[in-house]
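User: My instructor asked us to take a sequence, write out its structure as tokens, and then describe one feature of it. I'm not sure where to start. Here is the sequence I was given:
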Amino acid sequence: MRDLAEMIAEPLAVLVIDDDREDYLLTREMLADVGGVAFKLDHAATYDDGLAQLRAGKHDAVLLDYRLGGRTGIDLLREAQELERRPPIILLTGRGQRDVALEALTLGVSDYLEKSGLSPALLERVILYAMRQRQQEERLEEKVRARTAELARANDALRDEDRRKNDFIAMLAHELRNPLAPIRNALEIMRLTADDAEAVERSRAMLERQVGQMVRLIDDLLDVSRITTGKLRVQAEPITLRAVLDAAAEISRPALDKAKVRFEVCVPAESVPLYGDRVRLAQVFSNLLNNAAKYTPEGGTVKLAAERSGAEVVVTVRDSGVGIPADVLPRVFDLFTQVDRTLNRSQGGLGIGLALVQRLVQLHGGRVSVRSDGPGRGAEFTVRLPVAE
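Assistant: Let's start with the prediction itself. The structure tokens for your sequence are:
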């Protein structure tokens, strides 16, 4: 939308709808006498022509006579109500037609003038004022539309978050319930086979695995609480990239072995200093490695690579797995989001791992991104962290 100051730098297009040619010529002469602002007039001598030109939307302002043959300017204003956008309209009336002017105002005219009192200065002032008012109205409408759209997006986001939280609660109940049956069975087996050392050992191992799974779920829940309340903290200290990546690889080794994938590591031989929380950074990369193992089919490859790039270290976790659809990529770091990357087996999990990765990386002054060429093409997560001085 152009500003009025920009518009008056060029001749203003004004449509005069008046069936009296002499009155039109008088109006044209008055506007020709205006100094500083140029007007380019078009004349519509009939009701139908005036309505057609108004619908064409080519004018900056309209001067509309009340009497138009057997019809009136009020009739034309009623028909013009259907127009989505229209220029400011100024009604020209005869003396003593106040009721007509008031009705015209209810139909959206910007102003009204009595023909008998017209002057070049008055016409100029009223036209420019009407144009300025219309611009302000359009700006306000644009702000209202933008704000309405913003509120609609926020409302949709709240509904989506509420849905994801409900899904999370249902999934949490399922995940917490899953270990209970094996635990109950293991306890019953131990009770019935107390003298069978081998059976007791198998039951004990099963108990250990299931309890470990429940502990991991509880830890995830605690991290959810810390993320949502803004209480997630890191304890930074001088560390090395190698120490962090070695710890992450050690944590993820069981998941990688269980998935039967090939694990490749390519990291700098030299020591790269970092300033951060070793445990939390190891959690970042182990989460990414576990995620890669989860969605890579047997025989596939998971690669952990790192390199120094100026004042940053760039760490990538790349897998040859099922990939991520383009429409899902923007949401992979959202809390409670579980990306459906099916491998015909239940993957489980609470859907907070990647959200936790992003928050922990941000707390270390870094950033994380994801790239995938689509389903079946694998995925690559890239973490950038500042190198310690």
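For the description part of your assignment, you could build on this observation: Residues 341-348 have pLDDT under 50 and may be disordered. Try explaining in your own words what that tells you about the chain.
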